[in-house]
Automatic annotation (TrEMBL):
Membrane topology summary: Multi-pass membrane protein
Membrane-spanning residues: 75-98, 104-128, 149-170, 182-203, 215-236
Compartments in which it is found: Membrane
Protein name: Unc-50-like protein
GO CC terms in record: Golgi membrane
GTP-binding keyword on record: no
PANTHER family: PROTEIN UNC-50 HOMOLOG
Amino acid sequence: MTINSIPLPATQRDCMSAATKRYKYLRRMLKFDQMDFEFAFWQMLYLFIAPQKVYRNFHYRKQTKSQFARDDPAFLVLFAAWLCITSVGFAIVLKLGFLQFIHFLLYTIFVDCIGVGLIVATIFWFVLNRYFRNPNEIQDVEWGYTFDVHLNAFFPPLILLHFFQLFFYNGLISHEWFISRLLGNTFWLVAVLYYMYITFLGYSSLQFLKHTHLIISPLPLIVIFYIISLVSGFNITNSLMNFYKHRVV
């Protein structure tokens, strides 16, 4: 028997398949004519009003292309565009200079979004495959899928906190009034709930995972923290705005 006739181990075939998928994904990053921006925009809209429909498409992709993770970078490109647009709004609200704006934009893209996303995706990938996967299940959670789930869950908070909230900041939220911290802290509460809920949907839709309800188990603690912040006079938005400004000034 020749070497070529010996079948490769399953893990090696999977690694080569994953590497091939990553290569094809990255190769399409600059080929805008091959991206389906209309469908990516549809996904962004439905992440607000019916996120279950977004994950239904992930299952269709698994059936047709043997992967849950996106193979079209259009969503990531639009996501990056929204980051740039909302960063301009932050620069105006915080009265940042041009270089400070560039510094803020780089922080937002490479630290707040990509950096945190890589960490969160890796943690979920490891923990879910190690402790949440059914022991007799052959399938595992793709790392690319965990990063997609993070982007899905991060998008509504991005629009709420980095876009809509800015219209109320200077005129209302930035003050020390109770209504100021009520509005600002409520924005953050809704954003965190959105992130947790969409993350939960992403992993609960994988039938080979168990006990995914634990992902939303911290919800009571978050609500309690929200109430304590209102009573104690802690304005979350003000504190975060000061943090954003000081790290680029």
